[in-house]
Amino acid sequence: MINPLRGMKDLTFEESERFEHIINTASTIAKRYGYGYIETPILEETALFKRSVGESSDIVGKEMYQFIDKGENDVCMRPEGTAGVVRAFISAKLDRQPVKQKFYYYGPMFRYEKPQKGRLREFHQFGCESFGEGSVYEDFTIITMIAQIFNALGIGYELQINSLGCKICMPKYKETLVSSLTEIKEELCEDCNRRIGTNPIRVLDCKNDTCQTLLVESPKLKNYLCEECDPDFKKLKELLDQEGIKYTVNDNLVRGLDYYSKTAFEFVSSEIGAQSAIAGGGRYDRLVEFLDGKPTPAVGFALGIERIMELVKMPEKEAEGYYMGAMTPEAIPSLLKLATKKRLTDKVTVEYSSKGFKSHMKGVDRSNAQYAVLIGEDELKNGTLWIKDLETKEERVIAINEL
Ligand code: HAM
Question: Does the beta carbon of 304 sit less than 6 angstroms from any atom of ligand 1?
């Protein structure tokens, strides 16, 4: 027997219904906010992710599904969606147009991580990317949209926010941070020591308890924000307060991808174990430029579908459509003809084996239909059918073409 690969899984029956419900709910809400659907390839040039997600990130450093294809191209299965959408935005020369563009997408992402509960090697994201709007109002609007999606799915969350500064304030902060980290270098873990040289702000979200204790005294980015970033972050907090969206400011929230600046945020759930982030995102005003496009401010997020599937409250299933069955085999062709016609507008389940009334009624229960339609010998002779409304319990015999 061949099984799926480690960290990958099939979605069937009840699970796939949850999956679809999340995608449908999120897409409907994203469209209300002006987002249009975009589909980009799963396979991209490896250089795309190195230059966007960043060489120093765990994703690029350790987790890429990277290989050389038959044409000697260095390619990679996408570990996330933003890089591909930015590449598509530039490929279509949308960076040369004055119009603001908003895209939503969903699909599989691949990271060669150590699988555990809530952490897969193939997982799915729903994401949104907004291009051309540099105002913090857009950051607020995106956070509000995610909150609305979670509310619609019946999911509780905690929101954490931070500001990562911009090209003006970040370098000054990094310099101060590096000299403070160098003083405690000996006591920090191996990963942190490496990061001091590659990407020092990633030291802040080290999961090692000793490192975290040592970091309490380290300089905080919020005290270094520039004349633009500081008031923007204050404005974001005021708007969230006004909207009644609760949040905590997490000074150590730096995100695991290198492209962020200014607003960064994460939605976490306390109900799904250690892998608690259910959505993450932020502003990435310099990424379009890094990938050779015209400088364009941008902000976005992605939801982790599998983690949300654990939490989502599914709406009650309402009875719908028709169950059609025959009590004599000769009636089946008539039922099939009727079903094809009815399926232009309604859900129809047809039972192909002819059987007695009682067994059909069991089938009706399983199908969750609103109407049961049966044709027996008498009905076939008379060109009629027996129909029962399972809600009102009303039963009738009517001409076939009356249905
Ligand atoms: P991310 O935080 O790496 O951000 O991923 C977003 C979400 O994907 C996470 O919050 C989590 O729910 C889910 N996720 C990540 N890794 C796994 C995994 N191994 N197994 C299951 N679920 C996982 C990004 O990917 C950015 N592209 C988000 C973004 C869009 N920022 C701006 N625009």
Answer: yes
